[in-house]
Amino acid sequence: MEYKRFDDTVVVRIDKGEEITEQLRHVAEREGILLAEVSALGALNDFTVGVFHTDTKEYQANSFQGAFEIVSLTGTVSTMGGAYYAHLHMSAGNERGEVFGGHLNRAVVSATCEMIVRVIDGRVDRKFDEDVGLNLFCFD
Questions:
Q1: pLDDT band at 140, cuts 50/70/90?
Q2: Is-contact 24 15, C-beta < 8 A?
Q3: Per residue in 85-132, pLDDT tens?
Q4: Nearest residue to 101 via CA among 24, 44, 54
Q5: What's the rounded Cα separation, in Å, for the pair 111 and 41?
Q6: DSSP letter string, 83-126
Q7: What is the pLDDT of residues 32-41, one digit of tens each?
Q8: Which residues, listed in sequence order, are joined to residue 103 by a DSSP beta bridge?
Q9: What are the distances in angstroms from CA 1 to CA 108, 111, 119, 136?
Q10: Which phi and psi angles does 74 have, rounded to 5°?
Q11: In the chain, pLDDT over 90 holds for what percent of residues?
Q12: Whole-angstrom Cα distance, residue 102 to residue 65?
């Protein structure tokens, strides 16, 4: 992985064999990023995404292997209890044009991933919400 920062924007290249969520964490920690918007595209050969079921308050994870293109990867970097926290969603398509997606758990790059991290001047922490069952933005 390599990256370059331009004022409030970090341009990142994640390389073949690297895991996307790990590399985003490295960039955020190295650059001291507490709040940001994330977007990316690229190619994958192994990824896991999930769907949160509001009735049971549980995630159902689905894993995929093969040739996939990231159709959309979007999300946020914030903090929870003062520590790094990322919330990412991703859709990826196969050679037949079928698209699978959800909450991103992990994704291994097969060729490259081009990511843009737009740093927001501020900080928003997260707090677990018992009613929803998720870690939500907290503006206290």
A1: confident
A2: no
A3: 999 999 999 999 999 999 999 999 999 999 999 999 999 999 999 999
A4: 44
A5: 11
A6: EEEEEEEEEEE-TTS-EEEEEEEEEEEEEEEEEEEEE-SS--EE
A7: 999 999 999 9
A8: 50, 89
A9: 12, 12, 19, 30
A10: -145, 155
A11: 99
A12: 15
According to the model, what pLDDT value does residue 46 have?
A: 98
Please give the C-alpha separations between residue 58 and each of 9, 12, 63, 78, 121, in angstroms, as whole numbers: 34, 32, 16, 22, 33
- Number of C-beta neighbours around residue 133 at 10 A: 16
DSSP letter, residue 140: -
Which pTM does this prediction carry?
A: 0.95
Measure the CA angle with vertex 68, ends 19 and 102; round to 5°: 70
**Distance (Å, whole) CA 135 – CA 121:** 21
